[in-house]
Amino acid sequence: MTIKSQEADVAFIQALAELLNDNELSELQVKREYGEHDALNVRVSKIVPQAPMAPMAAAAPVAAPAAAAPASALADEPADGDPANHPGAVTSPMVGTVYLQAEPGAPSFISTGAQVSEGDTLLIVEAMKTMNHIPAPRAGTVTRILVEDGAAVEYGAPLVIIE
């Protein structure tokens, strides 16, 4: 491997790391083939916070910054600023893609200020081409929706605040 191709590989890996952070991904793997017997396999990953009940929740600290909260919602947040610690937080039971409506163009399942009953569908998390309806764990008012339609979510990520 020449110094020039090594520098190009380093730049490629740095670009992958930026892509990982910019798209809020936890892992990215790429195989770059240069010829029949020459290839570069790259796996870039970062540690993501686990749900409180996960056995390895005390893993190494995460270097990624937390998402900024809207100024109007700061009064509802716990002292540490993490919406996942809010007592009314509904978290994602799996890794996937969030959808706020049943199909494109359909009305959203919920909106800020909406009253929900226990068991009502709040949103859908698609995982491996399976649409998983996320039910409301209790009755209440939706005070915050913490995700955008089509966004990727991790296990334990806060989705909605119900008070």
Short overview:
This protein has 163 residues and is mainly β.
In one word, what is the shape? Answer: elongated
Distance between the termini: 59 Å
Annotated CATH topology of the largest domain: OB fold (Dihydrolipoamide Acetyltransferase, E2P)
Number of domain modules: 2
In helices, the fraction of residues equals 10-25%
The mean pLDDT is 77
Helix/strand-derived category reads mainly beta
User: What is the beta-strand fraction?
Assistant: 25-35%
Give Rg in angstroms.
20 Å
Give the helices and strands as they follow along the chain. Answer: HEEEEEEEEEE
With strands numbered from the N-terminus, the spatial order across the biggest sheet is 3-10-8-5
Count helical runs: 1
Stretches where pLDDT is under 50 for at least 5 consecutive residues are: 53-78
Supply the CATH architecture of the largest domain. Answer: Beta Barrel
Query: Which CATH class of the largest domain applies here?
Result: Mainly Beta
The largest β sheet comes out as: 4 strands, antiparallel
Which homologous superfamily in CATH is the superfamily of the largest domain?
RNA polymerase II/Efflux pump adaptor protein, barrel-sandwich hybrid domain
Q: How many beta-strand runs?
A: 10
